[in-house]
Amino acid sequence: MLVVEYEKIKKYVPTDWKDITIREFHNLYQVIYKYEDDDLDNDEVKKLMFLKEYASFLLKEERSYIERMEVEDIEHLVQATNKLMTQYEPQNLENFTYEDVKYYFPRDISKQTFGEYIECQALEKSAKVMKNGKFDVIAEQMARLCKTDDELGTYLDEEVVQERAEKFKDLTMDIVWEFNFFLLNFQKNLAKGFRIYGEEKLGLLKPLEQVNY
Questions:
Q1: How far from the centroid of its chain's Cα atoms is residue 74's Cα?
Q2: What per-residue string of b and e applies to 87-119 under the rule 16 or more CB within 10 Å gives b?
Q3: What are the residue ranges of helices labelled H in the chain?
Q4: Residue-range domain boundaries for the chain
Q5: I need a labelling partner for 189 at 20 to 30 A (CA). Which of 82, 181, 205, 212 fits?
Q6: What are the tens digits of pLDDT across the range 34-56?
Q7: Backbone angles phi, psi at 9, to 5 degrees
């Protein structure tokens, strides 16, 4: 966390994924996504517009406040928060603790129900039409798939999922990126399992197709 003092106002700026929550990342994502297709290295006007919005988000101040800052202060701010603009490197965590409760990532697909997988796939499809992409629904995905030791292998009640999903919006993004890593592996492994099952079933059906009635 970076401490910035300007015009006698002290600000705490996130410099690492552990410093920013899902709720906060929604706003940051909107700024990044807005300029995603622009060549900021060669378009000075677009670059300055992006930096102004980016600094406004980090400092939680209006753009008029940002316009009064020195250029070198903005540059220092961007350099200090560079980690938020780069891809997260998974640490291969197996669990996380939130409000003194330990939750486990879905490493073993055999401990997740098929209904949960279907619901998470539906959430993925819904996310495609949302302006914030999958970050709008990832708290609910985590609420469905990340469970305590006593909950492993059980299907959570919808009321529990929704209550937990609201709380999980305050999880920090380092935990969220770890979950995203596990979710991708979960989907790949399950898809692989379905493909093998489909091939075996097809192998059984082929001899039947050759029978003359």
A1: 27
A2: eeeeeeeeebebeeeebbbbeebeebeeebbeb
A3: 22-34, 44-59, 63-67, 71-80, 114-127, 138-145, 158-168, 173-209
A4: 2-85, 95-206
A5: 205
A6: 887 788 888 888 888 888 888 88
A7: -115, 125
